[in-house]
User: Fold these one by one.
Assistant:
Number 1:
Amino acid sequence: MDTTVFIYIMDFIGTAAFAISGAIAGIRKNMDIFGVNILAVLTATGGGIIRDLIIGSTPPKAFTNPVFVLVAAITANIVFLTVFWSHKSGVKFSGKTRAIYDRIFFWCDTVGLAAFTVDGVHAGLEPSLVSNAFLIVFLGVVTGVGGGVFRDVLSLEMPVIFVKHIYACASIVGAVVTYVWYMASNSGAASLVAGFFVTVVIRYLAMHFGWNLPKISNNGKSAW
Amino acid sequence: MDTTVFIYIMDFIGTAAFAISGAIAGIRKNMDIFGVNILAVLTATGGGIIRDLIIGSTPPKAFTNPVFVLVAAITANIVFLTVFWSHKSGVKFSGKTRAIYDRIFFWCDTVGLAAFTVDGVHAGLEPSLVSNAFLIVFLGVVTGVGGGVFRDVLSLEMPVIFVKHIYACASIVGAVVTYVWYMASNSGAASLVAGFFVTVVIRYLAMHFGWNLPKISNNGKSAW
Amino acid sequence: MDTTVFIYIMDFIGTAAFAISGAIAGIRKNMDIFGVNILAVLTATGGGIIRDLIIGSTPPKAFTNPVFVLVAAITANIVFLTVFWSHKSGVKFSGKTRAIYDRIFFWCDTVGLAAFTVDGVHAGLEPSLVSNAFLIVFLGVVTGVGGGVFRDVLSLEMPVIFVKHIYACASIVGAVVTYVWYMASNSGAASLVAGFFVTVVIRYLAMHFGWNLPKISNNGKSAW
């Protein structure tokens, strides 16, 4: 199958996944249905807009192809209405519902990160754009983490990229795998899928086993 | 009259209005006169800079035409000095002064939103740029809300777009009206004025009558 | 010596200095080694990325020349490991260590501000880009303060530009000096060095003598 199709699929998956994470973040901040839509759309399109501005491809895809904004908005409304009606119809807020939202948030954030990371790497592979492996990886990472940074900064939360272990790390490894695989096999589709799964798996394993990176702690006191 | 002149007037009105809202936000955060200037300039030029980056028109207008930065800075200084001298000369801080600042902030924020929304729609109407109605509206909304998002994120406040009912909503309706009017009448000036007033009126009515959009509440508890 | 070489040196100095300030900000927020790296890289490259997006030079330098990202990352790791090992080997957290970090942060932030300010002015001097003195200075200031704004917004701190007296002010004076010197002498190198030192000296003097700009205070109460 054509690489372009796979990039489109990745964009689509990443958009929907980040839209869900943005919608959950908005609901958590008690935003109304419209605020939830806006946050979801910005989260879903943020990474791609940053990517397009960086490579000088203006207007960004999000402004030339309505499907991404539409997918994000429809997704956000489904999430909002599901949560709205389930609580309306008697589901109580509890540690259990909270854990469910946490889990959905984690998976959507991870899938969005992975999809946009490999997408960003392929945007950097465009002929005559950047010829340096290091910087193609950098573009992949910025595209991957962009949506989440938008979401967190706009909802006044510490960006997940700084506090969740192995977030940008997973993105970097995924970007490297995508790039190396593409260079070795010249198969765009396979490299996208490989990079995507590597990113997801690393992030899942890090969460599951509680992998930690070194941190400087002042005996548990946060301000120093 | 020429459409270009009307766009210029809208830019001018939006710049001054957003500068006042930025100056009030800065004064509220106890910034000094210089911080107030910077915040006002960034609020006033933010939406336009985002618009120009998106349509690939670099350097952005704010950097090629000094009048916008100048208008914003002069406005900010007038606001700062007025507040400074009025309190110096005996006006006490009270619920009443606070309500006055709130009201000025509301109107300036609303006028800025409306002016930049219609301005953004017309930037998207440029020949051969975007041909999709959906996306022209999206560009209008991003341009309209951009300055306020800059102001709120930079002063560490939850962006007004997420928490005030019918903010982005008013911008969307105003953008649609501008676009449809222009397509139907081919009159740039009339479409700008129509879209501007529709945005302002919707936002005023929403505030006045306390219109609300559905929201998911955990019995008043905010974090869940 | 060639102006290009001096611009390169300024970029290099600014990148390293902002990377240190970003690393310290990250360590203060208890980020792990990876978060510290990301924040340092974004702080160090933020001003330059904003500059390149504004003048339409895409992809930004940070994406075409790996040296800046590398310098920022290496610097961040040196800072992290130094702090990590010094506390591991018995140095206690105290008012004294805190004061040392504060002082290093101040100097690095100041040097980064100065280096990117003069760099931004020269980017605006490129033939046929902007011909207006006012706007060349504006580009210098935006480039100078951009990295610090990224750093502060991403770590949920009030941007230093709004609260530290004579921060943007020093940048403006430095930008003016750079521009005027260049116009008068046509020596790029000398104008860069002059603007750099003027910015640093003004900021140092302001800190040392506690210069203040007028501010509106509600008898010490912050919210009004």
Number 2:
Amino acid sequence: MSGNFGSDNVTGAHPAILDALVAANTGAAASYGADEVSTRLEARLAAVFEHEVTVFPVISGTAANSLALAQLCPPWGAILCETGAHVAVDECGAPTVFTGGGTLWTMDGEAGRLRPGDLRARLAGSRAGDQHQVQPAALTLTQATECGTVYTPAEVQALAEMAHGHGLGVHMDGARFANALVHLGCAPADVTWRAGVDVLSLGATKNGALMAEAVVFFDRAKAENFLYRRKRMGHLVSKMRFLSAQLEAWLADDLWLRLARQANACAARLAHGLGQRGLALEWPVEANEIFVRLPVALAEALEGAGFHFYAWGDPPTNGAPGLYRLVTAWNSTDVGIDAFLTTLDALRPAAA
Amino acid sequence: MSGNFGSDNVTGAHPAILDALVAANTGAAASYGADEVSTRLEARLAAVFEHEVTVFPVISGTAANSLALAQLCPPWGAILCETGAHVAVDECGAPTVFTGGGTLWTMDGEAGRLRPGDLRARLAGSRAGDQHQVQPAALTLTQATECGTVYTPAEVQALAEMAHGHGLGVHMDGARFANALVHLGCAPADVTWRAGVDVLSLGATKNGALMAEAVVFFDRAKAENFLYRRKRMGHLVSKMRFLSAQLEAWLADDLWLRLARQANACAARLAHGLGQRGLALEWPVEANEIFVRLPVALAEALEGAGFHFYAWGDPPTNGAPGLYRLVTAWNSTDVGIDAFLTTLDALRPAAA
Amino acid sequence: MSGNFGSDNVTGAHPAILDALVAANTGAAASYGADEVSTRLEARLAAVFEHEVTVFPVISGTAANSLALAQLCPPWGAILCETGAHVAVDECGAPTVFTGGGTLWTMDGEAGRLRPGDLRARLAGSRAGDQHQVQPAALTLTQATECGTVYTPAEVQALAEMAHGHGLGVHMDGARFANALVHLGCAPADVTWRAGVDVLSLGATKNGALMAEAVVFFDRAKAENFLYRRKRMGHLVSKMRFLSAQLEAWLADDLWLRLARQANACAARLAHGLGQRGLALEWPVEANEIFVRLPVALAEALEGAGFHFYAWGDPPTNGAPGLYRLVTAWNSTDVGIDAFLTTLDALRPAAA
Amino acid sequence: MSGNFGSDNVTGAHPAILDALVAANTGAAASYGADEVSTRLEARLAAVFEHEVTVFPVISGTAANSLALAQLCPPWGAILCETGAHVAVDECGAPTVFTGGGTLWTMDGEAGRLRPGDLRARLAGSRAGDQHQVQPAALTLTQATECGTVYTPAEVQALAEMAHGHGLGVHMDGARFANALVHLGCAPADVTWRAGVDVLSLGATKNGALMAEAVVFFDRAKAENFLYRRKRMGHLVSKMRFLSAQLEAWLADDLWLRLARQANACAARLAHGLGQRGLALEWPVEANEIFVRLPVALAEALEGAGFHFYAWGDPPTNGAPGLYRLVTAWNSTDVGIDAFLTTLDALRPAAA
């Protein structure tokens, strides 16, 4: 349904990715990642990132994030992240169990982005070597953020340097990495290893795959023993070619970037339309998520008209407008965006 | 490659299952299992098992087993299983981490099947209520077993009754459940809940799916809080329809049984051929795995001729024949089996 | 050293408690808590609290808190507490590991006490039943608080009712419970089970014991399986009589209350003296901790004169006075307090 | 009661150790191990073992073993031990939880001692680098063993070399280390670091202390981050001087060796007496444990006469004699042993 802005994970898969599954379904193949498709994938990602990489395909963003963070954070460690980060609020404690008991230290960001000053203060205030306290071990940045904003390479670098200076590893939750990348217009390397990222969760599921994410290590030493963690968490897929094939097709011919551009363009169109109508955007729309203030009655009327999206954060009080999140995706269309805006115009007088 | 008897997971997917993915790829769908395909799947499995069920599709057998066992076994509990069980030797300790620190108690079986007397003795010897010792909490039976044999309903029932009598829950690792079922020729219910099984890991991956297993609870109360465990282990798939669709197609028109019959028939043909040639089968061939003693030189010659299979257990000494495992699958063919036997005949004089 | 105000755990043990160890050291005694002293202890605590109780002596407050909380909070649960609570900042993540991966949700309190409105909002904002989020499971209140303040029975009751209304269990961290109790002047029952507390960590170590705390369950059902947890965490002491004897002597003849009164009286004397001198107390002094603003130079001069106490929180900037914590104990004396004040007077002109 | 042979933990504490507590109870002392007694203890143990050491006093053998093993074994690792080892059967899974999910691999020994051939085979049969299987990480030897026997330095060395050769760390569970040492008559170093032991759990509780064990690292690098593990497991004692003082007094003037000699001598006297009476000792009596076959009626009659000891292993069938364990301790006496034998003589005709 083109009117479903609930999440980018309500979409199906891009046909080219389904085709790749069919193509991979030929003959016998070594299991557990020793197949040819999986081997090619690592080389492909090395080319994409202009750097040697160690790659582990997995089936969910939660798995990718938690497996990656467990490589950086011991049981007595702390993972520093923004308050609204997916790892902190949407994974039911997964990083804690994967790290064997690690702790999340959250900091309120600005439009979803951590502020260097806050990170500096938090690191300065941690008691290094004090046995009574968990020890900062990893920084995780969400790119694009949960507010639909994007860190610039310079912003990533500033935070990563600070983290490295205190001995922390740096992870990037890239569930919407492609959306961030096309916004920035930079090379994948610029906003990852060149900016200090040690390991990336590269998400394809929200951007055209069925279920496929890649944990990409730029520092191979940090991948040591990953394979045991993956297996004991149940995340080693036996017919690995069917994961790798999704990722290979997604990267081929810049499909991932084209899909992300489409999602972002529709988000920009929607943001523009909302702005023209005097509706307040909560944060700049830099990727494929729009956060907008709407009168509650109008939001309900839009839902009644068949559009789907979520209320965000605490419910409004005293008749104030509510905050709503709309997400565009790789298969969003101008027609769909315009239909939403037209319906909104039609409903607005009655709802207001 | 038709000559790959390494495992049933070297095979691809059945075309009908790929077709189902394409069919499921229509429009937007609610994520996390609230979609229509997933809803239909639970009803379908209730019909298959003639019992109400609570169903959770996951992507690997290790995840299915460990998530199921975690529902039955507290951190201070013990899971009783056969020495060679997949949970004990092939999952890198997954049941331990999913249960929060549970322990596996292994018992040597007979051709992979636990003996009631051994279970009785082990339960009698456990010190119930003794705070110094982990407490037996779950019994897990592998069906078909790791030796390619099959428990009868009566055998399952005898063990399950004993387990229930001591307060244990009963799990069945059904990575090759379909292969066992067609061997038995009974109803799915007969060898599961009617025989005392509380929860089943129903495996489709080895039998025609890309990656799809279902955790099937016959006792819904035992499924409480499963959804939190699944999520925090990274096993909640956002585009769930793509897991459910595989399972739905696999069950439709008895595809799962037809595929298992094909695998079993090829295994029987291979076993018969090996027997005719005077080669010793280690255990009865009741499903799709053959364990055979071969002169090491012959095994190596077969590998050299392009066939693939694994040596099993400890390496032979003093020129004794080795033990080898060959696995047939849903796409094995009589032609492929005969080619193996013909090659074996050709190589045998030279190798001997 | 009477001038050590660093913590109440720098003190030794009260002679009566050492005498009790000697008295308990007679003949053989059943191990692991089946001895006579341990049996008597449970009866004694039932009398003290006017309620049946299940009691487990342990050797540290961290163990007591974490073992108690693990009974209330599943791996996917959240424990709600004040931001500065010992469980949150001084136990190196112990509650996380004991609960098998639970999460701490912190809320800023007022002088260390949680505000009902904040708890209400946090519970209202939690997404009950949402598999993506950890589920609130326990409330823990520190009595006396980390700010040296005390919850009244009515305050405990208001918070506990709210917690129970959402299905949470209620724990009290009573590392300084005796200090709180003598401040309140109420019965032990009034501020525990009568106010809705399900389980109490009752601390004796800071108040005259060598190392002894008791986990006291008022709801016996909530103690189920505690003995396995305790053992597997290494906290089952074999010669239990030596733990129980400390607690028994501590409770006998109201020794625990007398010692707490002495500590509190000295704290009050110190607070009064500081106030008289125009020095600002950060929070009301209701137990045995004093938080006071001192010029940094004065604090350093006092340290130089042989007094010991800790700077608290973030270091002051721009020449502002610093915040310091001084803790009195069961063996503090008026003479010691007056010596501190006299020295302060002597140093003050020079330091200012 | 001198007739209690149930365990060496039914005894109280040696008076010199209680005296040491009183002596340590002077003035204020820095908490958490920064006190003078704790500092002296590390130097003392370095002298005892003729090697630099890093020492952590804890309150139970389970804590000492599990904390030590967690330093050697990652969550995906296996700890190799004898089938009857305390860590395997008497700690309710503690090593599993402390290691974050490690696995115990047990091997049947000979009179409690692991055989080099079995260890060699087990290590050879492990699949190093195979992600499906837990990886051997630590060897733990119990000294004296659970059968009351003792490894010679050469035996320890042979096993430790094998373990080190496969990259495993070597731990010694020395709950009864002193008893083993006085049997061997060698230097403490000879049977620990000189023989390849990396870390020792040195037990004092069973040999005269109230509750005190020391984790002694001979390889300081292996102690890294131990302090965080100890704290988060609730095993950091605030008034550490009261743990350290026990250990210091226990080591002073060879008290630990004198107490162990007394226990061993009484065990030898008892073993000799039983042998003279034609009663079968199950294993050589080399420390302070005696395993003897007794007619069940005789054992019951002895219990009836006020002696206490435990039946061991599976109950006897068909009227065969049972196996019983008797443990002598630091405060056992010749008189007590003779009283037991005399009573046995008196009861034997009637019981037989």
